């Protein structure tokens, strides 16, 4: 846990980040990159969309982070019948001691620090949109009154990429509010063996909170102070500009298969994440390699395929790789 003083040194930043990663890794095996990128999103006060096949530990990953952080946690299971009021809350009419009646706001689960939006694409667009204001503005408006969510505030959402029946794909506006989209791959055989050993016996892994809200806010403040040279910032801007098919910088694959490229939020996600990644590497300035390392997570959900790209099953990760090859430092 951290001291009351919110000021943080780079060494303390690294110690906290290492402690969080180590604690989460007790429960999550074989997903080091996903753990690191989720940590970066949390440190940068951003949101993450976690996608993977059933049984790969997406929900367990979010729960592990909630256990390693001394923060208020809420899990929302998204279903087709879920309503916006089930997320944000509603006004209740109650009898008062003097006999009168008055409305009292009953806060919904969104008023927590870490929100697990499980299977987010199973809810209707109306319900999905209930998250939009909170994710971007950190406020919730109910019946004309605005309430602030408590900082820090993170939405970690999961979705299944193969089971599309009865789902509602997230609209572009909501996808763009996620700092990173992380793909959870199938574990290697040795990692799978460790998972089986840990989950098929009566042994239970208990995680200990190693950081709290003030610590995360201080880590975010320090990350934002990490300097980035103008050439690094220009590279992020060029990379995002080249993701648009009408740009002269766009590579052939982008011109052929992309309908819309990344918004400016893609560049912001790369640069802010790179600032934190540089600190984790013990460096006090951002390198272009930091941007390139985070480009897939920051851009894969921001490249919208056209009909031809969807028909041919083009992967946005391949297009991001082509971008990185085309845009040289």
**Number of structural domains:** 2
| Gyration radius, in Å | 21 Å
CATH homologous superfamily assignment of the largest domain: P-loop containing nucleotide triphosphate hydrolases
Secondary structure class reads alpha/beta
What fold name stands as the CATH topology of the largest domain? Rossmann fold
What is the percentage of strand-forming residues?
A: 15-25%
Percent helix range: 40-55%
Low-confidence stretches: 1-5
Q: What oligomeric state do these chains adopt? A: single chain
Give the key terms.
alpha/beta; Helicase, Ruva Protein, domain 3; 329 residues; five-stranded parallel beta sheet; two-stranded parallel ribbon; single chain; 44% helix; Rossmann fold
Task: Give a short synopsis of this structure.
This protein has 15 helices and 13 strands. By secondary structure, the chain is of the alpha/beta class.
SSE blueprint:
Elements: H1 10-25, H2 32-43, E1 48-52, H3 58-68, E2 69-70, E3 73-77, H4 84-88, E4 89-95, E5 101-107, E6 114-118, H5 125-128, H6 132-137, E7 139-142, E8 145-148, E9 154-159, H7 172-175, E10 180-184, H8 189-199, E11 211-212, H9 213-224, H10 230-241, H11 252-257, E12 258-260, H12 264-280, H13 288-299, E13 304-305, H14 307-311, H15 316-326
Parallel strand pairs: 1-9, 1-10, 2-11, 3-6, 6-9
Antiparallel strand pairs: 4-5, 7-8, 12-13
Helix pairs in contact: 1-2, 1-3, 9-12, 10-12, 12-13, 13-15
């Amino acid at each position: 846990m951290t001291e009351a003083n919110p000021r943080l040194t780079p060494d303390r930043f690294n110690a906290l980040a290492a402690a969080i990663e180590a604690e989460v890794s007790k429960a999550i095996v074989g997903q080091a990159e996903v753990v690191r990128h989720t940590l970066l999103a949390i440190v940068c006060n951003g949101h993450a969309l976690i996608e993977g096949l059933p049984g790969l530990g997406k929900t367990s990953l979010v729960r592990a982070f909630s256990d390693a952080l001394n923060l208020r946690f809420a899990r929302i299971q998204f279903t087709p019948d879920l309503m916006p009021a089930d997320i944000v809350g509603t006004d209740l009419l109650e009898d008062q001691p003097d006999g009168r009646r008055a409305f009292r706001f009953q806060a919904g689960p969104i008023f927590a620090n870490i929100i697990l939006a499980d299977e987010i694409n199973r809810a209707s667009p109306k319900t999905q949109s209930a998250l939009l204001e909170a994710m971007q503005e950190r406020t919730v408006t109910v019946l004309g009154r605005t309430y602030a969510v408590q900082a820090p505030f993170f939405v970690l959402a999961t979705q299944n990429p193969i089971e599309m029946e009865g789902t509602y794909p997230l609209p572009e506006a909501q996808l763009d509010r996620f700092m990173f989209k992380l793909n959870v791959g199938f574990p290697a055989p040795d990692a799978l063996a460790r998972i089986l050993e840990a989950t098929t016996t009566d042994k239970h892994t208990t995680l200990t909170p190693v950081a709290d809200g003030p610590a995360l806010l201080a880590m975010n403040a320090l990350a934002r102070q990490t300097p980035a040279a103008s050439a690094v910032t220009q590279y992020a801007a060029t990379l995002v500009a080249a993701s648009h098919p009408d740009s002269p910088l766009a590579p052939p694959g982008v011109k052929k298969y992309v309908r819309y490229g990344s918004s400016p939020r893609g560049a912001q996600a790369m640069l802010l994440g790179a600032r934190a990644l540089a600190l984790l590497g013990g460096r006090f300035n951002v390198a272009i390699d930091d941007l390139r390392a985070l480009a897939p997570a920051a851009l894969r959900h921001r490249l919208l395929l056209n009909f031809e790209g969807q028909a041919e099953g083009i992967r946005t990760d391949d297009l991001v790789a082509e971008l990185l090859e085309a845009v040289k430092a």
